[in-house]
Design a protein that fits this description.
Elements lengths: L10 H4 L25 H8 L12 H4 L9 E8 L7 E8 L2 E7 L3 E6 L17 H18 L8
Antiparallel strand pairs: 1-2, 2-3, 3-4
């Protein structure tokens, strides 16, 4: 029921299940940890025996049941110039417990407690009880943007 769904951070718009069939008849399983779309290509390349240096995590050990994901967050980025409110630049970091969303240029922040508020109805960003969570997730968001961004000497 929303227009311009892509600028809103709600799980109903952002959550995409990661489904994979692993060669060799490995039985399927559900993993509740957050993974990223950045993980799809490194996983497929590894399953195909192709070396790479991509920023995503190779989830082959997760798919075969050997381990849980190492990096338990997903970076979500969206930019749109044509919205009813003008240009929107949204960056979000999603962990198993929280989702932090930062909009620029206004620096609006949204924080959801994913475990206790699965419908994402309560923004905790201005609640002083969660100021340490906001601070930690802002640092994680910036670190992920640097880690996954263009490298020096590569095309932007």
């Amino acid at each position: 029921g929303l227009f311009y769904k892509s600028i809103y951070p709600y799980n109903r718009h952002m959550h995409i299940p990661f489904l994979a069939k692993v060669p060799g008849g490995v039985k399927g399983k559900v993993v509740d940890d957050v993974v990223s779309m950045l993980d799809m290509v490194p996983t497929a390349l590894n399953l195909g025996g192709v070396a790479h240096e991509l920023p995503g995590e190779d989830l082959t050990p997760v798919l075969t049941g050997e381990s849980a994901p190492v990096r338990k967050n997903a970076l979500v980025e969206h930019e749109r110039t044509n919205t009813p409110v003008g240009p929107v630049k949204m960056r979000s970091i999603v962990t198993n417990d929280y989702k932090l969303v930062r909009y620029r240029p206004d620096e609006d922040i949204i924080l959801f407690d994913r475990r206790n508020d699965p419908l994402e109805l309560r923004n905790l960003a201005k609640d002083s009880t969660y100021s340490h969570v906001v601070s930690d997730l802002m640092k994680l968001l910036d670190d992920e943007l640097i880690r996954t961004g263009p490298k020096e000497g590569s095309p932007a």
